[in-house]
Every structure is written in structure tokens, then in C-alpha cells.
Design a protein that fits this description.
CATH superfamily of the largest domain in chain A: Glycogen Phosphorylase B
CATH superfamily of the largest domain in chain B: Vaccinia Virus protein VP39
Strand order of the largest sheet of chain A: 9-8-7-10-11-12-13-14
Shape of chain A: globular
Helix content of chain B: 40-55%
CATH class of the largest domain in chain A: Alpha Beta
Largest sheet of chain B: 8 strands, mixed
Number of strands of chain A: 14
Oligomer: heterodimer
Distance between the termini of chain A: 58 Å
CATH architecture of the largest domain in chain A: 3-Layer(aba) Sandwich
Number of helices of chain A: 20
Strand content of chain B: 15-25%
Shape of chain B: globular
CATH topology of the largest domain in chain A: Rossmann fold
CATH architecture of the largest domain in chain B: 3-Layer(aba) Sandwich
Number of domains of chain B: 6
Radius of gyration of chain B: 33 Å
Radius of gyration of chain A: 26 Å
Chain lengths: 568, 904
């Protein structure tokens, strides 16, 4: 039971909105608690619309950036600023803290606050980042390592589970103000002569240029939407993005499309999106805002964007993920030739927009997109939905794709397998499998035997280690020998995971957990380490079990599909 | 009277008073009070050089120059030899006519009488350089503001201003005073300069052999350097308002004359009386009386005294105190006043002749107020007749020490006050006291400069030195060579500076040696190679320059063969970076210094006499003798393993390259058990057997082992030109000191400079011929105890006098004595004082900052984080917060980078 909760979410608009199910979930779980959030001043206004937040503390990052680059007195000013914030927060005596920013500085901030119960990214005494819970490790294992292809779990769910929230709303949360809504309604009535045709938002800008579809494409899309649906189009975005919109309007200009980029604040944008029927967007802040106010999106996940990670967190959205060997690319590097942009045509987006507008949500389960409209070798089209455990998933609706050289649908099976594994292992939600819990080679995922064998070897050395530590005449040489052997085992396991990357995430979490084990008591160290090896072994076995479960049901459903089509 | 008329009146007054002064005694009033024209021209050269210190001579040669307030052309004439042409302008018609009458070449000189209000006779944008020395400071500030506007008009865009003025506290003066020193607030003056189109470059204190500043009053002489960058010139009233906070008062008809001028005139009377030029003294007294007719009692007393003295020198009651029991010298005359005795010594009154007690009390009160260290001892230079010391004693509990060289004065004083004071009379005693006391105040007796001027300067310098090294921490950069014998020395210098607690950065370029050598490897054509090598040196130079820029270094010290080109040295010079070079090779044998000496501010060599003169002739600015030394970290006594003793040990050893003279000597020692270590020895008999490791170069670590394990180390200085021992060899090689540092026994060839470094025969044994060497080998090889005794003494001497720490302390003292104030000012103007001020209520942050300040870093987050990440263990609260800022900034930068287009 927590009374005073601190959430640190020094992130951008989209990430803050993605934190909303967790925040609301915490409030649901601890209705009497007071929740304080620390945010970047630039995005503080978003928090006013996120339910569950009682107090907002702002951190002026512009001030810090300026002061630090000035050096000297400016630097002292920043130091002062931080000291004041720290002492203000310390005085609040929070009993629970959740760090939703995975940055090193927020980890240090939490260290400075000295709060007993903390979740998320923390820092050790020497300022190194520490992942206190398995979910944070999972995030790192999937985002920071070459394991992105195998992750099927949305970051909102990862964060939420990290905070131990299970009573969460199925969707992002944002409540625009009434004034905002009135203002936007009246604005719309002045902008469009009639209220014929659907109101469609188009978000042209994106956080990075390489994630931004071309002006020409947006112009064509606008043209189609106006022609086909007599749609009323509003271009959304920030003031900086207004120029991008002008570029679109230069290509195609119509009085059915108006530029509102830079003309709304966040609350007003929320209202505006709540009034629209659909938003067409990249993976952007407005995408999350749209979802949060209940308006579905058709989203283009270009370049580094990957829908499994940051896809729109609500059911009923349509997502286009280009199929190209480099997708998703590394967000930290520029792209010389964003070929993935060419795989998505304005015609396809227009088609999906119409599909979304014409299909009611109850019938989502029947939506399919034909191969000739969206070839599965070029693009994957997903719809978003929640599974029975309340976890968001993305279901491909244009057939099956052979991704990254794997057989058709194979990587999806792996993602499914991981979803099951983590739900059972980390969220304690029992998963069904017809495969018995046994170490039989036919039940194991390929290359698992080696890891299991190494785990067994490790148990022996760990027992020896314990014996040696408790033996008053234990020899130092022997101890060194044992620890060398244990090191070798760990290295071997890591090597296997690099050669067979599908098992990488399980091993990575094992390694990260090992790094967290500290102390001088050899017996305790041995016990803790043994537990990690046991976790590893069990997870490797379970991975095999769940995989065969997923693969078999996949085969069965295919057979069913084939049967149905044959009978036709 | 409207303002304009008033100013014209002032201009008229300036003209008439200066005409009087020039008529009376132009040499005295024009410069430092000299008696002949030659001395006056010399002072002109000196001041011109001070003004144009940072302007390269090539630039000067092309400069059309204007000297404002040129007087009789004291600076114009000598300057005319260094500039393209020069115009001198002065308000005094007498001065200009005297100037024109000197029989000196004046092809490129023009003298003009100015109107004392502006420079309207001169055209716009007509001068490259405007100078003025000891002139603008006496001009009433309203006129000065007018002149400033005119400076902006007549100096070309890009032209240079170099003027001597006084900065510090504004003085309450009358506009009618045409001599009193005007002093301006630095910031106000800077702003005024900007208003008239100049960019302020620097202000550097003027230090001459005599007092030019009055620190009590806060009137300090500076050279101000500025560059005209702007066409716009603000109007006069704006400039005037900016220049001075409250205008000088206008006395009008009640003006009684300048007290300052009167004092200056009376001082001349005193000088001339002492020089027995009684007529001159009478004339000077006339001027003094004409200059001032007010009520100042002091002036009246002095005038009366001087008149009396002039009338009859027998008025004074003489007491021959040599008859007393205390055997005091006949050189004193004692005057008994109502307040007690006052001594006349060498014609100088040591106290006030009427009111010695009251005058001393006033002095003591003033002195106490101005003391730098409130609770520390006071060192008075000059005992005088002890009236002043006693007055001080009555007012403070602080310990008083008196430095007095005249033992008779000490006796006289002791006779009066017994052991009230502690006296010292020798410079080494002074050194002891200065090194002993943590802080000590220096006070100079008013009369001391008159009877012991040189000593006063020496004491002042020593006192200044004591605080210079500790007080000022310049950012020092050391540039080493790519390779060669001086390379390790650059490292020793770095270590020593660190040991001295200085902020030092070693720019080690030795990593580029491979690149440099590759030209040889790939190319055969010599001229192509030369071009590339030249380009390479330029690249290295540019690198050094960029490092200096980035790290904001104040001083660059390079050692022999460091790759810095003259172009870069000139650029550094313009930047105000002080450059020093330590040439650790024989100047007679290596000539590389010839092309570089003139570009350095300081040139240190380890030779004296002829070598010193040659370097100076080659344009060396400040050439100093600085012998080599040993590094305590590297050259030390060590314990060797039996294997090492086997490998490195011998009865006789020699470490060094096989120069001609060495081959000559060692070929004749073939019958002895000598191990020779080093390269360039001929691969032939008898060396084949003697030379170790097939003539490989020996590392510092290894030669220290050799020194430590040889009974006798032969140290023979190298010579290409001579056979055997160079009879005229002067310099002492590093090996001499290094052997001493290792407590290793050496026989070294005689060098003329050696006896002043080690006591020959006691601390070091020398030889002057092959037979002498053989004889000494024979003798010392069987005297292990004696060898030990000698090496212990050599070590003691080396430790106390010949470490790199001592050398660099000396080098830094020399540099800081000249530039200490400007470096201090640079540091004060930099970000540090404000930063530390800003965190005075954050002691933890302040102490973190001080750590990086000590290291010579700027107060930036990068520097702080760099320091934190070098440490280990738990982070403190401050460190955590700084790391927070660091990571946050990193993230902001990353996000901005991704957003600003580099995303595609």
C-alpha cells in the first residue's frame, strides 16, 4: 500500500501519453494515494489531461541546457536548480517511486532522492545505471540489443508490468478540457463550410526526418481522401512542422484541407483529435494523443519505428510496417536512402483509411487486406487488439510474411512465444501449453540443450563454491579455480545466445540479473546465482514448450484455413 | 562662462604651464628626471618598447604613427627609427620648438603644435598607430574625453592604440590642475574606448625601475592596447559621462596652483642641491613658487626649508655622534627637534626635520591600513633613524623585522631602542625569513629609496617572488620534441611543475615520430622530403596553436627541437600567450636557436658569456642562464637484482653516443674494464668489445641501472670538433646532475660552469686530460668509502639546488616578475572568480571546482565530469548532481542532433 507516489517521466509527449495506463492503473490500485509526476517543462501541459496525476513538478531542461553550456556561473545556477528540486522532492518523503524514463540522469535523480521502494531504472553508488526489475531488463534486452526482431510486447505493457500495475485501462488516457473542445468545434465550423464527409487528421511531421513520409505522398493522399470521401482534412502538428504542411499544400491545394500545425496547444490538439474520425500519422506524439482521446489511427511505421514496441495502444488501429531488410533501423543513425518510404503508396493509405472508416470496431476480427492491395512481401498491415490477459498485440491482416529470411510467419511465432514466456515468467499469468514441462530434447527449442547442460554444470560449481566457503580449511586456489569455471560457463552461454539470437533475450536477462548480484557473503552469492541459473534453465525449457504450442496451433489454424478454402 | 570658453581657458593654462616647465628644465619634466639628452632618448626608447611590446617589428615598420603629448620628442625621435613615419603633437609651443631644434635626423618626423582641445589639424583615418606615454594622465578628464573622440577619428580602421594611462580609483581633482595624475575606472575606460570605435585588447601594468604607481591612492600605471574596429564615434558628452563618474571641479579664479606640480618641482630643487647645482636649484625653486601659491602647510615648510638650505648650509646644528660610547659613524648628522631626534644621512633627512614623530605616526597609520596580511609580520626595508619603525610599533602588535644594510644605522637604532626590533642586514638572512614566514608584509621606509635604492628593488623583487609562485597559477603548456635526448626532459619538466602544484599540460608530440620518419621510408628525393617535412612541422605547430587556444594556456614552454614555427610563435605572441624556450644544447655546436630565438619572449640557455651575447644578438628578447638538473622521480638510487648487477654493473662505465672526442678518449682506455652504453660507436676494435647491446640506444630506466651499478661513471661531454677533452667547454650536461641524483660516482671533464654548480674535489671530481683521467680512475677505484662520501655530498648539493623543481621555480619567477600581473588580471577577468563567487554558499561544489581549477581546467561541466569519472567508489551528493546534469545534457544534445536533420 503506497500513499505518496513519485513518477519520474522526463520524456517527450508520446512517452508521457504511453505512461498514462500505468499512472491510471496505479491510481486504480492505490485510490487513496497522491501521485506526483516530474516532467520536462516543455511537456508539462500534457500531464493536466492525464488522469490520476495529483501534482506536477516541472524540470526546465532548456534552462539546464543553456546554463551547462555557458559553464561557470551558468553551471553553478544549474547545480542550484537541481539541488533545490532534489531537496523539495526529498522533503516530500515519497514511499514509492517509479522511473519511467530509461535515461541515466533520471536514474541518478532517484538515487539522490533515497526512496525505499523504486521501480524502473535506478543507479548504483558509483552512478552506473541499474535495472532493478526484470521488466526493465526485458526492455533493455529488446531495445538495446539485436533482439528487436523477436519482441512482441508493447512498451506500454512492459512499463506497466514493471510498475506492477494490472488494473489498467485498455488504452492511453487523455482528457481534453471542455473549453478546448468548444474552441475547436467553433474553429472547425469556421474552417469548413459544411460538415459533410469525414473529418480526417493528417500528421505530416515526425520526430526524425527519416521517419517522415514525403510531402508528395501526403498531397496525393489528401487528394484521394477528398475525391473519394469528400473528406475534410486538417493537418496537425507543431509550429515547427507548419512548413512541412506548406510543402504538402504546395503540391496539392484544396479548400477541403486546412493547416492547423502550430495553431493549437496540446489540450486543443487533444480536443481537435477527439472530434476527428481518423488520424493518419507516423509513429508520433499526436498518434498517441489521438489514441488517448479515442480516435483510431492509420499509422505508418517508417525507418526506426516498430509497431510491436511503440504501436498505438488501443484496439482498432491500422498500422503499416514496411518490409525491408533494414527495418526497423537504428534510431541513432541517419539514413542515406529511406527506401522503406517507397514501399507505402498513397493509394494503400487511402484504402486503409476508407477501410477503417467503413468498418465498425466489432467487426475488426474479420478485416483482411488482399495481397494485390498490400503485398505481404512489401508491407505488413496490422490491426491492434488486446489479448485476454490485457496485453496489446498487433495482428497481421494481409496474409503472412517471410521476415528476415525466416519462413513465413516464423518470427511471429517467436514473438508469440516470447509473449507467453514473459507473461508466465514475469507477470505470473499462467500460460497454456500442451507440451509437458520436461527436459526432453524433442520438446526443446533448437540449441537449448547446450544452455541447459551449462546450467547443470554451473549448479555443481556453485555447490562446490558453497562447500568451500563454509569449509574452515577451504583453499583459496580452489576458490579461484571454481570462480574461473563459473566465468567460463557464463561466457559460453553468452556465446551461444549470440550465435542463436532467438534465445538472446532470455540469456541477456540472465546476464543483466547476474550483474546485479553483489555482496561479500559467498554462500549467499552462490545461492542467488544458483537461482538465476534455475530461472535461465526453466525459461529455456518453457520457451521450447510455448514455441511448440504456438507453432502447432499455427499449423492447425492454417490447416483449418486451407480446409475452409478447399471446401469452398 | 560657457563650457566651451572654460575648456579653452584650460587649454591655455595647459600651454602656459607646460611652456614654463619646458623652459625651466625640459629633461626633468619630460622624463624620469634625467640630466642629459642621451638619458632622455634612452628613456624614450624604453617607453616606446613598452608601448609597442606586442607589435611585431615588421608591422611597426609599416606604421604611420602619432604621438599625442609628444613634449620635446623624447619618444618621437627614437621611435622614428622603428616606424614608417611619425607625427608628434603637443599643446606646448616651447616643447615643439625645442623638439624641432634637436640635431637629429627627422626625415620621417613632423612636429605640430596642438590646440589642447582636439586634434583637428589631423585628417580622418590617417594613422596606423597612436601612442602616448606620460602625457594623457595629466590632461584634465574633460579634455581627455575630447581627445578620445579624436583618437577614434584619426586612427584607421584596424589601426592600433597604445597609450599609457592610469587605471584604478578616480581622483578628486580640479580641472585647472595640469599635472596631477588622472586615474580612470577600468570598466568605464573600456566602455569609453568602445564608444569611440575601439576594441579594448589589454591593460598591462607598467613596471619601471622606480615607482610609477601610487597603490595607496589606487593610481596604477597601465599600458592600454586597443584596436579601432568601428566607424561610429559617440558624441563627446556620452563619452565623457562614460569615462568618469563625477566630473572634475572647476575652481576658476580661486585656483591656487597644482600641489602635485609644486611637489614635483620641489623634489627637483632637492635633487639639484644634492648635485651641488645651486643655481639650477634656485631656478627650480622659482618655478615651484610660481606653480603654487596656496595654503598647503607642508609645501610651505618644504619651500622654507629649501630656501634656508640654499641660503646657508651651515645653519644645521651638527653633533658628532662618533664620540658616543656606541661608536656610531661620522656620516650622520643628528638634528634635535621638539619631538626628538632626526638623522641627516648622506644629505637626506631620514625623518621629518620639524615634526619627526607626527610625520612618522601619519605614515604608520597609512601604512597599517594598506597592509596585505593583517596579522603577519611586517618587514621594513630601511631602518632610517627608527622613527618610522617606532611609530609602527606603537600602533600594532604585529612582529616587525627591519632590513638595513648599513650596520651603523642598526647600531644607532639599537642604541636608542635596544632590542625592540629584529634586524637583518644580509640578503641570505632575508631569503631565510621570506622562506620561513608564511605571509609577510613589505613596507619601504620613505627615505630608503634615496639611500639604498638598489637594495630596495632587490628586496621588493624577492618579496614579490615569494607570492608570485604561490599566488598565481598560470596555465602552462609544455611542448616537447618528436624525439631525441631532450624528449625525456619535457616529461621531467611536466613532473616538476606538477610537484610545484602548478597547472600544466604536456603536449607530447612524440607519437607523431612514425609519421615523420615515414617520409624517409617512402621518398628518396630530398627536396620533396624537405617540403613534406616542412609541412609536417607546420602541421605540428598548428596543432600546438589549437591546443593553446582550446585549453586557454597562458605560457608555452618548449624544449630544444620542439616543432613550433615562427609564424605560430608570432600568432601566440599576438594572442598574449607568453612563450619560453629552454635550449638544452650547446649553442656553439647547434645552430637551430638562431632562427627561433627572436620569436620567443624568453630564451633559456645553459651557457653564459659569449653564448648569451650571441643569442641576444640574434634578437633573443630576454635571455637567461638556466642550467640543467635531475628529476627525483627518475634519477635515484635503486636496488638492483643480482641479474641486473650482472648485466649493467662494471668497474667503469660510460653512457652516451660515440662522438668524435669520446671515441678518441675511450680508444685509449681499452686496457681497462670499461662498459660503453649508447649508439653511434664504430663497429670495430677496440669498441666492439666495450660497447654493450651492440650500440643500442639506452632507455632512462636502464641508464639509471647502469649509474647505480658502476663503481665509476665516466662523464665526458661531447664534442664533434675536438679530440679528447674540450678545453673551452662551458656547459654542464644533464648527466652530471643525473649521476649526482643517483648517488653514483662520476669523473667528469672540466667545464667552466661546473664549479658554480658543484664544489670541485669535494662534491665532484673532474679531469682535464687523458692522463689525469687515468690517474683518477686508478686512485678512486680503490677508494669505495671516499667515493661514497663524495657522492653523498654531490647528492645533497643536487637535491638542494639542482632539481627540475628548482629550475622551473626560477624560470617561472623570471616570467612572472614580468608578466605576473597581466596573467593575474587575465585569470581575474576569466570565468573563475565569478564562478567561485557564485558558489560561495555551496562549499562542496566549490571544493570540486577548485580541484579542476588547480588542474588548469575551465569551470565547465565536461571538466568536472572528466575529473569525477577518473575517481572510483561511491559518488558524493555533489558528484551525483553533476553527473545528473552531464547525462541530461548528453540526452538533450542527442535529441537535438536527431531532430536537426541528421536523422536522414
Amino acid at each position: 500500500m503506497y500513499n505518496k507516489i513519485l513518477i519520474i517521466a522526463i520524456t517527450r509527449m508520446g512517452d508521457l501519453l504511453q505512461a498514462s495506463p500505468t499512472i491510471q492503473g496505479l491510481k486504480n490500485q492505490y485510490p487513496d494515494s497522491r501521485i506526483t509526476i516530474v516532467v520536462d517543462t516543455n511537456f508539462a501541459s500534457i500531464c493536466k489531461g492525464i488522469p490520476g496525476i495529483d501534482e506536477i513538478k516541472e524540470l526546465d531542461m532548456n534552462y539546464i541546457a543553456r546554463g551547462v553550456s555557458q559553464g561557470g556561473e551558468g553551471l553553478v545556477g544549474c547545480y542550484d536548480y537541481i539541488s533545490k528540486l532534489v531537496s523539495e522532492l526529498r522533503n516530500e518523503n515519497f514511499d514509492y517511486c517509479l522511473n519511467m524514463s530509461n535515461s541515466a540522469y533520471t536514474a541518478i535523480l532517484i538515487k539522490l532522492l533515497d526512496i525505499k521502494a523504486c521501480r524502473g531504472w535506478l543507479s548504483d553508488d558509483e552512478g552506473f545505471r541499474l535495472m532493478a526489475d526484470s521488466w526493465s531488463m526485458l526492455f533493455s534486452a529488446f531495445v538495446y540489443h539485436s533482439n528487436r526482431d523477436y519482441n512482441g510486447m508493447n512498451l506500454v505493457d512492459i512499463f506497466r508490468c514493471g510498475a506492477e500495475v494490472n488494473k489498467h485501462p485498455l488504452g492511453l488516457q487523455f482528457n481534453p478540457s471542455q473549453e478546448g473542445e468548444i474552441k475547436m468545434r467553433s474553429l472547425l465550423s469556421t474552417l469548413f463550410k459544411d460538415s459533410d464527409g469525414p473529418l480526417i487528421g493528417i500528421q505530416v511531421g515526425a520526430s526524425q526526418e527519416k521517419r517522415q513520409w514525403s510531402a508528395k505522398n501526403f498531397a496525393l493522399l489528401t487528394k484521394y481522401l477528398v475525391q473519394d470521401l469528400n473528406a475534410r482534412i486538417i493537418y496537425t502538428g507543431s509550429r515547427d512542422e507548419s512548413e512541412l504542411v506548406l510543402a504538402v499544400q504546395n503540391e496539392y491545394s484544396t479548400d477541403r484541407a486546412v493547416n492547423l500545425a502550430g495553431k493549437t496547444n496540446i489540450d486543443e490538439l487533444g480536443s481537435l483529435l477527439s472530434l476527428t474520425d481518423l488520424l493518419i500519422t507516423g509513429d508520433t506524439g499526436p498518434m498517441h494523443l489521438s489514441v488517448a482521446v479515442g480516435t483510431p489511427v492509420v499509422a505508418l511505421f517508417l525507418a526506426s519505428a516498430l509497431c510491436y514496441e511503440t504501436g498505438p495502444y488501443s484496439s482498432g488501429n491500422l498500422i503499416i510496417q514496411p518490409q525491408i531488410s533494414c527495418n526497423p533501423c537504428n534510431p541513432n543513425y541517419p539514413c542515406i536512402r529511406p527506401d522503406c518510404h517507397d514501399l507505402i503508396s498513397p493509394e494503400l493509405v487511402n484504402y486503409l483509411a476508407k477501410l477503417r472508416l467503413r468498418t465498425s470496431l466489432e467487426h475488426d476480427g474479420f478485416i483482411q487486406v488482399a495481397e494485390d492491395i498490400a503485398p505481404s512481401s512489401q508491407v505488413r498491415i496490422f490491426r491492434s487488439a488486446f489479448d485476454t490477459d490485457g496485453f496489446l498485440e498487433f495482428i497481421q491482416i494481409n496474409g503472412k510474411t517471410a521476415e528476415k529470411g525466416y519462413p513465413e510467419g516464423y518470427l511471429d511465432s517467436i514473438r508469440q512465444t516470447y509473449r507467453k514466456l514473459w507473461k508466465e515468467e514475469l507477470a505470473n499469468i499462467k500460460q497454456q501449453s500442451f507440451v509437458p514441462n520436461e527436459t526432453k530434447s524433442q520438446n526443446l527449442f533448437p540449441n537449448s540443450e547446450n544452455i541447459i547442460e551449462l546450467c547443470k554444470r554451473a549448479y555443481k560449481y556453485l555447490d562446490l563454491l558453497k562447500d568451500n566457503a563454509t569449509n574452515p580449511i577451504g583453499s583459496l586456489n580452489e576458490l579461484q579455480e571454481i570462480s574461473k569455471n563459473l566465468n567460463d560457463i557464463e561466457l559460453e552461454i553468452e556465446e551461444i545466445s549470440l550465435t542463436f539470437p532467438i534465445l538472446g533475450a532470455v540469456v541477456r536477462i540472465f546476464i543483466m540479473s547476474k550483474e546485479n548480484i553483489r555482496g561479500d557473503n559467498l554462500v549467499k552469492l552462490a545461492d542467488d546465482t544458483k537461482k538465476l541459473y534455475e530461472d535461465l534453465e526453466r525459461r529455456i525449457i518453457n520457451f521450447g514448450r510455448f514455441y511448440f504450442e504456438v507453432a502447432t496451433s499455427e499449423t492447425l489454424s492454417r490447416r483449418e484455413e486451407n480446409d475452409t478454402s478447399n471446401s469452398r | 562662462m560657457d563650457k566651451n570658453t572654460e575648456l579653452q581657458d584650460i587649454a591655455a593654462l595647459m600651454r602656459s604651464e607646460w611652456d614654463d616647465r619646458i623652459n625651466s628644465d625640459y629633461r626633468y619634466w619630460m622624463s624620469d628626471g634625467v640630466d642629459d639628452d642621451v638619458s632622455m632618448w634612452n628613456s624614450g626608447i624604453r617607453d616606446f618598447d613598452i608601448l609597442t611590446k606586442y607589435i611585431p617589428s615588421v608591422v611597426l615598420k609599416e606604421s604611420s604613427t602619432l604621438d599625442v603629448g609628444c613634449g620635446v620628442g623624447r619618444i618621437v625621435y627614437p621611435a622614428s627609427e622603428k616606424v614608417k613615419n611619425i607625427v608628434g603633437i603637443d599643446v606646448s609651443t616651447e616643447a615643439i620648438s625645442t623638439a624641432k631644434n634637436f640635431n637629429r635626423p627627422k626625415e620621417n618626423i613632423k612636429f605640430i603644435v596642438g590646440n589642447g582641445l582636439d586634434l583637428s589639424v589631423l585628417q580622418d583615418n590617417s594613422f596606423d598607430l597612436l601612442i602616448s606615454f606620460a602625457a594623457l594622465c595629466s590632461i584634465p578628464s574633460r579634455v581627455f574625453a575630447k581627445y578620445l573622440c579624436e583618437f577614434g577619428r584619426v586612427v584607421k580602421i584596424g589601426g592600433t592604440l597604445r597609450i599609457q594611462i592610469y587605471l584604478g580609483n578616480e581622483q578628486a581633482l580640479s580641472e585647472e590642475d595640469t599635472l596631477a595624475l588622472r586615474s580612470y575606472d577600468l570598466n568605464r575606460f573600456k566602455s569609453a574606448l568602445e564608444l569611440v570605435g575601439f576594441n579594448f585588447n589589454y591593460a598591462e601594468e607598467v613596471n619601471l625601475d622606480f615607482e610609477v604607481s601610487d597603490y595607496d591612492k589606487g593610481v596604477v600605471a597601465y599600458i592600454v592596447g586597443a584596436e579601432r574596429i568601428n566607424v561610429e564615434i559617440a558624441d563627446f558628452s556620452k563619452v565623457f559621462e562614460t569615462l568618469i563618474s563625477s566630473p572634475e571641479k572647476v575652481v576658476g579664479l580661486n585656483w591656487q596652483g597644482s600641489e602635485t606640480a609644486s611637489y614635483v618641482a620641489l623634489a627637483r630643487v632637492r635633487q639639484l642641491i644634492e648635485k651641488k647645482d645651486l643655481n639650477g636649484a634656485k631656478n627650480a625653486l622659482q618655478l615651484a613658487k610660481k606653480t603654487y601659491h596656496g595654503d598647503n602647510l607642508d609645501i610651505k615648510i618644504i619651500v622654507n626649508d629649501l630656501e634656508r638650505e640654499l641660503e646657508s648650509k651651515n645653519n644645521l646644528k651638527q653633533i658628532n655622534i662618533s664620540n658616543s660610547n656606541h661608536n656610531i659613524s661620522e656620516k650622520f648628522t643628528e638634528i634635535i627637534t621638539e619631538e626628538g631626534p632626526c638623522l641627516i644621512y648622506k644629505g637626506i633627512a631620514l625623518s621629518h626635520q620639524v615634526k619627526p614623530k607626527e610625520a612618522a605616526k601619519n605614515w604608520a597609520t597609512r601604512t597599517l591600513k594598506s597592509l596585505e596580511f593583517k596579522d603577519s609580520s611586517i618587514l621594513i626595508v630601511g631602518a632610517g633613524d627608527s622613527n618610522f619603525a617606532l611609530a609602527l610599533k606603537n600602533l600594532t602588535e604585529q612582529n616587525i623585522i627591519i632590513y638595513e644594510e648599513d650596520l651603523d644605522l642598526i647600531k644607532y637604532s639599537k642604541n636608542r631602542f635596544e632590542n625592540t626590533f629584529r634586524y637583518i642586514s644580509k640578503l641570505n638572512e632575508l631569503d631565510y625569513i621570506l622562506s620561513d614566514e608564511t605571509t609577510i608584509n613589505l613596507v619601504v621606509l620613505p627615505s630608503a629609496p634615496f639611500y639604498m635604492q638598489e637594495s630596495v628593488e632587490v628586496v621588493r623583487k624577492k618579496h614579490r617572488k615569494k607570492y608570485l609562485i604561490k599566488g598565481i597559477k598560470p596555465n602552462i603548456g609544455i611542448v616537447g620534441p618528436l624525439y631525441g635526448g631532450t624528449l625525456p626532459i619535457a616529461g621531467y619538466i611536466e613532473t616538476a611543475f606538477k610537484n610545484l602544484g602548478q597547472r600544466v599540460e604536456y603536449i607530447d608530440l612524440s607519437g607523431y615520430l612514425g609519421t615523420y620518419n615515414s617520409f624517409d621510408k617512402f621518398l628518396k628525393n630530398k627536396s620533396t622530403k624537405d617540403v613534406l617535412e616542412h609541412g609536417f612541422v607546420n602541421l605540428m605547430s598548428d596543432l600546438v596553436y589549437q591546443i593553446v587556444e582550446e585549453r586557454k594556456l597562458d605560457i608555452i614552454i618548449s624544449v630544444a627541437l620542439a616543432p613550433i614555427s615562427p609564424t605560430i610563435l608570432e600568432k601566440l605572441n599576438k594572442k598574449g600567450v607568453i612563450t619560453a624556450h629552454w635550449f638544452m644544447e650547446d649553442t656553439k655546436r647547434f645552430s637551430t636557436w638562431k632562427n627561433i630565438a627572436k620569436y620567443y619572449d624568453y630564451f633559456f640557455i645553459f651557457q653564459k658569456g659569449e653564448s648569451m651575447a650571441e643569442v641576444k644578438n640574434a634578437g633573443g628578447n630576454r635571455v637567461h642562464y638556466l642550467p640543467l638538473a635531475f628529476s627525483q622521480q627518475f634519477h635515484k638510487q635503486i636496488v638492483l637484482t643480482p641479474q641486473e648487477i650482472e648485466e649493467f654493473g662494471s668497474k667503469l662505465s660510460f653512457v652516451g653516443a660515440g662522438y668524435n672526442n669520446r671515441r678518441h678518449i675511450f680508444s685509449k682506455l681499452a686496457d681497462l674494464d670499461v662498459k660503453i652504453w649508447g649508439s653511434e660507436w664504430p663497429d670495430m676494435v677496440p669498441f666492439k668489445r666495450m660497447v654493450q647491446r651492440a650500440g643500442a640506444r639506452i632507455s632512462v630506466e636502464d641508464y639509471v641501472k647502469i649509474f647505480n651499478s658502476s663503481d665509476i661513471n665516466i662523464n665526458l661531454h661531447s664534442s664533434h670538433e675536438r679530440d679528447g677533452i674540450d678545453p673551452s667547454g662551458d656547459s654542464v650536461n644533464p648527466r652530471t646532475f643525473e649521476l649526482a641524483g643517483c648517488k653514483a660516482f662520476q669523473l667528469v671533464d672540466e667545464r667552466t660552469l661546473l664549479p658554480e654548480l658543484f664544489e670541485v674535489d669535494k662534491e665532484i671530481i673532474t679531469f682535464n686530460s687523458l692522463s689525469d683521467l687515468r690517474e683518477k680512475i686508478n686512485f678512486y677505484q680503490n677508494q669505495p668509502d671516499l667515493r661514497k662520501e663524495i657522492t653523498n655530498k654531490a647528492y645533497e648539493r643536487a637535491l638542494n639546488f639542482h632539481t627540475y623543481e628548482k629550475r622551473l621555480e626560477e624560470m617561472l619567477e623570471i616570467i612572472l616578475l614580468d608578466f605576473g600581473d597581466s596573467i593575474k588580471m587575465k585569470i581575474e577577468q576569466g570565468p573563475w572568480p565569478k564562478t567561485l563567487e557564485a558558489c560561495k554558499d555551496k562549499p562542496d561544489l566549490a571544493s570540486r571546482l577548485r580541484i579542476i581549477q588547480e588542474k588548469g581546467e575551465e569551470p565547465t561541466l565536461e571538466a568536472l565530469v572528466g575529473d569525477i569519472t577518473q575517481g572510483k567508489g561511491k559518488l558524493s551528493d555533489v558528484e551525483m548532481k553533476l553527473m545528473f546534469l552531464h547525462h541530461m545534457r548528453g540526452q538533450i544534445t542527442q535529441v537535438n542532433k536527431l531532430r536537426n536533420g541528421s536523422g536522414v
